[in-house]
Amino acid sequence: xxxxxxxxxxxxxxxxxxxxxxxxxxxxxxxxxxxxxxxxxxxxxxxxxxxxxxxxxxxxxxxxxxxxxxxxxxxxxxxxxxxxxxxxxxxxxxxxxxxxxxxxxxxxxxxxxxxxxxxxxxxxxxxxxxxxxxxxxxxxxxxxxxxxxxxxxxxxxxxxxxxxxxxxxxxxxxxxxxxxxxxxxxxxxxxxxxxxxxxxxxxxxxxxxxxxxxxxxxxxxxxxxxxxxxxxxxxxxxxxxxxxxxxxxxxxxxxxxxxxxxxxxxxxxxxxxxxxxxxxxxx
Amino acid sequence: xxxxxxxxxxxxxxxxxxxxxxxxxxxxxxxxxxxxxxxxxxxxxxxxxxxxxxxxxxxxxxxxxxxxxxxxxxxxxxxxxxxxxxxxxxxxxxxxxxxxxxxxxxxxxxxxxxxxxxxxxxxxxxxxxxxxxxxxxxxxxxxxxxxxxxxxxxxxxxxxxxxxxxxxxxxxxxxxxxxxxxxxxxxxxxxxxxxxxxxxxxxxxxxxxxxxxxxxxxxxxxxxxxxxxxxxxxxxxxxxxxxxxxxxxxxxxxxxxxxxxxxxxxxxxxxxxxxxxxxxxxxxxxxxxxxxxxxxxxxxxxxxxxxxxx
Lengths: 283, 310
Known about the structure:
The complex is a heterodimer.
Chain A: H1 3-24, H2 33-38, H3 40-50, E1 66-69, H4 75-84, H5 125-138, E2 145-150, H6 157-168, E3 174-180, E4 183-184, E5 187-188, H7 189-192, H8 198-204, E6 208-213, H9 217-229, E7 235-240, H10 263-282
Chain B: E1 3-4, H1 6-20, E2 24-28, H2 32-35, H3 38-43, E3 48-50, H4 55-67, E4 71-77, H5 78-82, H6 86-94, E5 101-105, H7 123-128, E6 134-136, H8 141-151, E7 158-161, E8 167-168, E9 183-186, E10 191-195, H9 199-212, E11 217-221, E12 224-226, H10 230-237, E13 242-250, H11 255-262, E14 270-275, H12 286-292, H13 297-308
Parallel strand pairs in B: 2-3, 2-4, 4-5, 5-7, 6-7, 10-11, 10-13, 13-14
Antiparallel strand pairs in B: 1-8, 6-12, 9-11
């Protein structure tokens, strides 16, 4: 199947990720809608096309590709994808963030099959991924490591320490995707704590950098393909996205970084995702 | 008394473990010559990761290595191995309960010349309060080697506190060793001294002097501070009139606190010899600094005599 041939399927899975995110935040339940839906399309391509060895029946496959959500607060998006892959039963979605749930508020390797690292305290995921990439190289494993960071998260100093390590150890089995959604908890990142020219900053640290529209499936697929073919340096994909993508009232709106929907908003979201699913099925 | 380097024992043990187990990797932050992890680097360059002066990145990188089947040992000075990357130890390592060994070298006041920014008076406290963490404080080079052999068998994080200076060899190379056990080095019938690290030899000296004054002291080397062997602790205080603790650490939240917590329901006075809630300072040699901070055999003697009203 060529790239264009698989796009309808991947768009459908992107719609399913968004539908599952909404399912996890019924009215009154707080959740990170904004940062989960901004990364949904990238996640669809990673989990349903690009990553190898992702198998709930073989969780410890040493040669599986790894995905670490350094922006751990957007884990709803990851749960939304993992449930489609059969890592846990669909009933668990309703129990997210409740006592004893398999689905914790932030990624937890003890609780959730398919989660590869504990994150939540921001800025640590890239270092963890470096360690994974180093270990895989020692073992001559073909597996690749993917790290999803937020743009607001780049204010954490440890990220920049890790960026130097990735280059110093020539970790070309590592790919960072920055979910460049331009909004953080307090407001627009440009107002809160501007980090301009993210691509340029990665470049000057020695990374291979690809800038894309993080909602354009062909671009996402091409960028991940390219990242895999570049040798000697790690690749950063700066994916320009829209916070809350797909849900107009939440798009670019910091109020939905981590919020509860009211009945009306929830119903609207359900209508939207149902329409997305129908449209994609008809393509 | 024969003195030996704990740092050298650490470096040699790393090499030994590296030979025995291909999963062993080591990380360091530009202090490998001092911590002696460089010995591992010379032997296994491909498994030795120079992380630059970036301890936070080093800790989380070790977590990634552990998550991918490796057995990482990371070393730097105790201050930079604990407080500096504290959140990384908690979030990347302790919460997921990963088998990462953190070596806090030049611990306590043992880096006497470098002063307060390089002396750790809180490392036991910081590590002890983390769930899943094992906290070790070897008394000599012999025990350091045995600890390293055991630490690699732990399935969770381990902190090892290593003194910079050569210390008297007090333990028997042939004696059995287990993490979590405490070791009675001298028996007595009136008071018991629970000590760790450099303070163990000073406790033995104090016990010898007190014997002449008619107070018979038991001395116990507590080299596993967490998990504390509560059963052995209680057995060791049976029939005793006083407990004294001795450590090269702040009086808050270290060995003394751990023992007081464990004995909180017992009717026995507990005296503590420790750093009196102040940061370190520079000194021309180690003994001068320990004297200035009241970490001496005379301080231990005085504490016991005070409890006995002698």
